[in-house]
Amino acid sequence: MISPLLDALLDPKHVALELRGASAGEAVWEIVELLRDSGELPKPKEFFEAVMEREQKSSTVANGGVAFPHARTQLVDQILLGIGRSRKGVVFGERKDLVHLIFVIAVPQQMVNDYLICVGALARLVRNDGTRQALLAASTPAEFFDRMRHEP
Question: Could you say which of 22, 31, 44, 88 is the most buried, measured as most Cβ atoms within 10 Å of its Cβ?
């Protein structure tokens, strides 16, 4: 079972199951475009720059080919979650292992606790190899979310 906060952030409009980008910047930009296209991220370029600056300072790549690029910013009023998947993998910085699941998080400056709950829930969810494999195999956003909600 995922946390109610995380569950409320799941939106099919914010999911790209076939990322085209091979680099972190390309892949993150694809996900940021989803947030922009939904009308919920009014300044995508500024947010993207904040995310990439944060990523350069300290990589958000976790074990298992997962990354959590994010930025705390005044550009949003509520937490937004964009999700991207790359079967071929994305290069993040100097890391040798490729990233296959990317969770981009836009966090209002003042919502630190909610952000920590969200990232913690995501990290717990994807630390299980079976869950990661199920997410990589999902064929639609609805199936992806179903597998997140009912992880093994």
Answer: 31
* Closest C-alpha among 89, 110, 79 to residue 11: 79
- The total number of structural domains that make up the chain: 1
Domain that holds residue 79: 4-149
pLDDT tens per residue, range 34-80: 999 999 999 999 999 999 999 999 888 888 899 999 999 999 999 99
Pairing of strands 99-108, 66-67: parallel
Confidence (pTM)? 0.95
Alpha-carbon gap, residue 150 to 54, rounded angstroms:
31
Q: Which of 150, 134, 122, 141 is nearest to 60 (CA)?
A: 122
Q: Which CATH number goes with the domain that contains 76?
A: 3.40.930.10
State the angle between helix axes of 129-137 and 112-126 in degrees (0 to 180), rounded to the nearest 10: 90
Compute, in degrees rounded to 10, the torsion defined by CA atoms 65, 1, 114, 38.
70
Categorize the per-residue pLDDT at 94 as very low, low, confident or very high, splitting at 50, 70 and 90: confident
Residue 88: helix, strand or coil by DSSP? strand
